[in-house]
């Protein structure tokens, strides 16, 4: 229950907040890359910087989504385990009720029965005519009496030939390989889900400040048209 509560109250909400903050941060990074490419004199350098920001942004978002997905899957596993335990408890109660019903039914059937009188007699009775004991005569053991029995072929050295039966193989002496150990999850416990290496989200330089007018125009419908009407500089 403590692990489930930690996932519901700490891990999953923090992952959602990280995704929201990453969305806002990536919006600022996109504005910075756009302005930097338009105002830069060296377009190739600005393009390489934009590529670096794009790669770091994708890695950061992939890590955050993977961490949140792992937490949600662990939450579902815990809840599924609780449902299985509850189902087992319900089945146990159902079996107990069925056993009680069977006992009551047998008791009611026993009321309708009658006792049977049985005569007590000896179970083992000696025979009337005793058999005469036979004198024991010792005979030598003949080890070749069964040589002609079966599918073997008798050779001159009195050893049966090998047939087409499978021979016994020696048991393996090597120890089977052990299964790989699963990695550790985000909560410091063993988990079957793979987690990625943490990647920091990209940040714009400290000297870059987004103007309030530009922030207000991000959500206006004419923003796309204004961007398309800007003059493009050719190298």
TrEMBL record:
Where are the bilayer-spanning segments? none
Q: Which branch of life, at top level?
A: Eukaryota
Q: Where is this region: Disordered?
A: 150-235
Q: Would I find Membrane among this entry's keywords? A: yes
Give the GO molecular function terms. cadherin binding; SH3 domain binding; signaling adaptor activity
Can you name a GO cellular component term?
Answer: SCAR complex
Which residues lie in Polar residues bias regions? 156-170, 217-235
Query: Pfam families, from UniProt?
Result: Abi_HHR
Q: What is its subcellular localisation?
A: Cell projection, Lamellipodium; Cytoplasm, Cytoskeleton; Membrane
Residue stretches making up the T-SNARE coiled-coil homology domain: 45-107
User: What are the alphabetically sorted keywords of the record?
Assistant: Cell projection, Coiled coil, Cytoplasm, Cytoskeleton, Membrane, Phosphoprotein
- Keyword Transcription regulation tagged: no
Q: InterPro entries in the record, alphabetically? A: ABI, Abl-interactor_HHR_dom, T_SNARE_dom
For this entry, list what GO says about its biological process: neuron migration
The text of the family note is: Belongs to the ABI family.
In its UniProt entry, what is this protein called? Abl interactor 1-like
The source organism is Lipotes vexillifer (Yangtze river dolphin)
Its organism's taxonomic lineage begins at: Eukaryota, Metazoa, Chordata, Craniata, Vertebrata
Q: Which gene encodes it?
A: LOC103069874
């Amino acid at each position: 229950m403590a692990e489930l509560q930690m996932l519901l109250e700490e891990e999953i909400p923090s992952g959602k907040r990280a995704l929201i903050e990453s969305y806002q941060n990536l919006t600022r990074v996109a504005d910075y890359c756009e302005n930097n490419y338009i105002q830069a004199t060296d377009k190739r350098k600005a393009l390489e910087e934009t590529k670096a920001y794009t790669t770091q942004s994708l890695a950061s978002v992939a890590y955050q989504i993977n961490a949140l997905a792992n937490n949600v899957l662990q939450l579902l596993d815990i809840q599924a385990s609780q449902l299985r335990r509850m189902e087992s408890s319900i089945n146990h109660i159902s079996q107990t009720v069925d056993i009680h019903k069977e006992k009551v039914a047998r008791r009611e059937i026993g009321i309708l029965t009658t006792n049977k009188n049985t005569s007590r007699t000896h179970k083992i009775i000696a025979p009337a005519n005793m058999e005469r004991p036979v004198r024991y005569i010792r005979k030598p053991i003949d080890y070749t009496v069964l040589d002609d029995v079966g599918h073997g072929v008798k050779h001159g050295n009195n050893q049966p030939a090998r047939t087409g039966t499978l021979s016994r193989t020696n048991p393996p002496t090597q120890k089977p390989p052990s299964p790989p150990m699963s990695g550790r999850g985000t909560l410091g416990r063993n988990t079957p889900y793979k987690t990625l290496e943490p990647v920091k989200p990209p940040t714009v330089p400290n000297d870059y400040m987004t103007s309030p007018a530009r922030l207000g125009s991000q959500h206006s419908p004419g923003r796309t048209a204004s961007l398309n009407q800007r003059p493009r500089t050719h190298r």
